[in-house]
Amino acid sequence: VAIDGFPLPTFRMEPMQRGEVIKSIRSWTIRDDDILLATAPKSGTHWAHEILSMLHRGKAETISERFTLLEATTEQEFASAPSPRVLTSHLPLRLLPDNAISKIKIVLVLRNPKDLVVSKYHHMLGMRSYDYTGAFKHFLQWFLEDKLPYGSWFQYVREMEAIMDTEPDRICMVHYEDLKQNGIEQIKKIAQFLSVDADDQFCQAIYDCCSFENMAVKKLPPKDLQDKIWKPGCSFYRKGIIGDWKTHFTVAESEMFDEILAQRMTGSKLKFRFSDRS
Ligand code: A3P
């Protein structure tokens, strides 16, 4: 299904039905204490959601419950969820509930786009529903041409940056790479932004509980569901590292990517970190 010319995954419903639901999301009723967790796919959505969930629950404890993306829910499920709700979505601003952009707090997670495209490649290779087996070089081209599910990463990031420019107090930006390397500080920053009491010990406990190793074991769906969704050995928890792009990109691809990134992000103040060191 495509909306505004960009392709969307179909999730649990038939494509046409899902398309109708997504078109209706703009009119869904937002509550003042809702929080939007906004991410482009493969930026660390599951990780960030787990952190937000622990901050809200006031407990550094992994629960088996998993989140559903806003675009994969129904209006009824959305309306009946208890407050405070974390609305987790990859949708671009123009498809989100109207008030989400002008009213509620937004936690935005960004990831360097080279690791993101590699992660997305494995996502599509691994998920049975895509039935995909292509080569990385073609996949990379699709990414650069905005042809992958959810459309243009560049546009998504630029639109989010525009909110940061106009309303910096309503948006908390977290980089995946900072969460990896400076996680406790980042968790403190998010807690402060959400006005949640969280001392150093609690932030450390959340950080430990949300480690890749812990989540990769404890946050998997039940085995039958996991096997239905993913090919053997695949899941949302793949490597969880910075710099895996180096094992996928050729030097020429990396240079081309840098050039296109520079062009398409002209005027942007965002800085992405592509390795552990820089
Ligand atoms: P990789 O494919 O590079 O391993 P999303 O949740 O947005 O789909 O993002 C998935 C990516 O985040 C995957 O990246 C996944 O391994 C990584 N990830 C998930 N949980 C993580 C965690 N606790 N720590 C670090 N990375 C994590």
Protein model, in words:
The structure is a single chain. The chain is an alpha/beta fold. The protein has twelve helices and six strands. It has helices at 15-24, 45-57, 75-80, 98-102, 113-126, 136-144, 153-166, 176-193, 200-209, 212-218, 223-229, 251-264, and strands at 2-3, 6-7, 35-39, 86-89, 105-110, 171-175. Strands 4-3-5-6 form a four-stranded parallel β-sheet, sandwiched between helices. It has a two-stranded antiparallel sheet with strand order 1-2. Helix 8 (176-193) packs across helix 9 (200-209). The longest helix is centred in the middle third of the chain and has 18 residues, at 176-193. Bound molecules: adenosine-3'-5'-diphosphate (A3P). Adenosine-3'-5'-diphosphate (A3P) is lined by residues 39, 41-47, 115, 119, 122, 210-212, 215, 236-240, 244.
